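Make up an example, fold above all:
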Amino acid sequence: MTIQWFPGHMTKAKRTIESQIKLVDMVIELRDARVPNASANPLLESLIQQKPRLLVFTKKDMADATVSSIWKKYFETQGISVLFLDANQDPIKKLILHSSQDVMKEKHDRDRRRGIRPRPIRAMILGIPNVGKSTLINRLAAKKVVQVANRPGVTQAIKWIAVDPMLQVMDTPGVLWPKFESELVGYRLALTGAIKEQILPIEKVVEFGMKYLYEHYPQILLQRYGIQLETFDLDVIYQTIADKYGFKMGGNVVDRQRVMSMFMADLRQDKLGPISWELPDESAI
């Protein structure tokens, strides 16, 4: 299944980024720690050209720490500078500033040898919708400079923010690519809130999520919903949740819509605990 969507404001954002990229020294690419590959926009590879890059994984508190440590090693073996951040708890400004200076160190050393005093770093922040750009920007600026919401498509304009005398950042709207060649990418982005739930059939998204939890986090199904299965059975899952919470229609029929809505709400409100929805290939490390 090929999932296509590309709202007009994203086309505009893409063109704006293309026109502004020449103004910056480096790129800070934000991805979701729960889906490190699925939250990578393949369009960015062509947009950022050869700019130095810092890869920042947000929402580390919502991801499985053990899995994140494997992902970190995976990217570092490729020579990519990586940060995993909890935007609400970590010293964001200090970490971003130091990591950006490390990324730009080679260029700054070269400039000093030529007698050029390095100017403040200009960095463009890029990422898909709902990856946490606005929260990170507000923490960097130590004040609310952009609107924050737990839904995609909030930031829709370019903004410059002075973070430090040695760092300025450009905030940009979240940009998705025109189509998802893999339905698995779409499911993972729907589960993490990067795309609106209406883009995909919610039945398929919930089925993918429930099966993934059964295979990788069965303790979550047990602790949250009282579900313990020998083999995966979606009907049993729906029935168990409906019995537990009284989600029934006439004739004692399971109200599947209410079950699905509850599951998605539990994800949005982080009631299931840390989950990594994408596992690295450890053989590649």
User: Anything to note?
Assistant: The two ends are 30 Å apart (CA to CA). DSSP finds ten helices and ten strands in the chain. Residues 146-156 have pLDDT under 50 and may be disordered.
